[in-house]
Fold this sequence. Notes:
Layout: H1 2-22, E1 24-30, H2 37-52, E2 57-62, H3 70-75, E3 86-90, H4 91-97, H5 113-132, E4 136-151, H6 158-163, E5 165-169, H7 173-181, E6 185-189, H8 194-199, E7 207-210, H9 212-217, E8 226-242, H10 243-247, H11 251-285, E9 289-291, H12 295-309, H13 319-336
Parallel strand pairs: 1-2, 1-3, 5-6, 8-9
Antiparallel strand pairs: 3-8, 4-7, 4-8
Amino acid sequence: xxxxxxxxxxxIALAATAVSAQTTTIRLATQAPIxxxxxxxxxxxxxxxxxxxxxxVKLIVYAGGTQGSEEATLRLMRPGVEQLQANLLTQSGLxxxxxxxxxxxxxxxxxxxxxxxxxxxxxxxxxxxxxxAKGLKLLAWGSAGWVQLFSKSPINSLxxxxxxxxxxxxxxxxxxxxxxxxxxxxxxxxxxxxxxxLKLSTGMIDAVPxxxxxxxLLQVFRDAKYMLDVDVAPLYGALVIxxxxxxxxxxxxxxxxAASAKVAEKKFFDSSTTADxxxxxxxxxxxxxxxxxxxxxxxxFRAEADRLVTSxxxxxxxxxxxxxxxxxxxxxxxxxx
Length: 337
């Protein structure tokens, strides 16, 4: 009897060990605030991964930049380190992996969300192959809304933008140099430092490009009380997982994860526009002043900006990617007309 009990316990222990060996835990970092639709969407996706794989895949989300900047979290995903296996990255983080993603940060390149999404869909297969060559698999795209310019003093022209102490993300020295070469005053900082620097009367920055919903979430608008409504660029991003982690997962579970990620992708895009609109409404009631240029002033603003961004081709964006994006954008505009 004792022997049979021991044998049963041993069998249970072996079974438990086998189940444990089959469990893959994906640790994901994101700069998205902990209390945000993006973090909730990730949590929902993780719950679906765990449920539909019968616990074989689990997701832990580290939100709010708690694991460091995007560049820092990418270093934690490297082979041999692998403290993190996944990342929800903005365009800035993606471009630190491959210059091609800078194409989505070109100021005034896109005139509407529909136009930007059209070009994104056309470029996606090429960009996904490029990032795969860097040891990452792209599971889903997303958007955080359209970048506007928030400032401590009113900004009405491109000359005003050039005179402002303009926040730019750390880690891309070439982007900083491009700004300087074109007469801007860029100040590279970690995004977590934005609120604190804006609060200071002698802060390092006094203007920040970001979508309205992030301005509300981070309470940036309380110190940067003016917004120039010019639709600088869509803030696209992507959910990536390391190829090392992905290849350890069974194909059937990979299919489940990919399908759930595509559901999350739709939520990311659907929520971005409504979040910007509702955030603007809220911030206006709390003291935000929005300056929307008239059509003539906006046309002049864009024309001057267009002359500047041509230098981005080959310098910040690979020639072939820039040309592809320009071709697809112009085709969209032609078909729309």
